[in-house]
Design a protein that fits this description.
With 75 residues, the protein is mostly helical. The chain contains four helices and no strands. α1 crosses α2. It is globular. It starts with a helix and ends with a helix.
Length: 75
């Protein structure tokens, strides 16, 4: 799952996947803006068939946070 999320981030943000780590902050380190974050969350919902609660999305800072949230909701 981590690799798939990294690939989605890299494609969406136009960066190389190898520059992304679990500790990378989506906005600060990867350069995503609020629209990028919304688009990513929508793509994750489609990809994994989950609904990401708005309140939790605001707490997502790092790539690992995204992986953890999708894992939690997918169970």
């Amino acid at each position: 799952m981590y690799e798939k999320i990294v690939k989605m981030l890299a494609e969406q943000l136009g960066i190389e996947a190898k520059t992304i780590t679990p500790q990378s902050e989506v906005v600060k380190d990867l350069g995503a803006d609020s629209l990028d974050v919304v688009e990513l969350m929508m793509a994750l919902e489609d990809e994994y068939g989950v609904t990401l609660p708005e309140g939790e999305v605001e707490n997502v800072k790092t790539v690992q946070d995204i992986v953890d949230m999708v894992n939690k909701l997918g169970k």
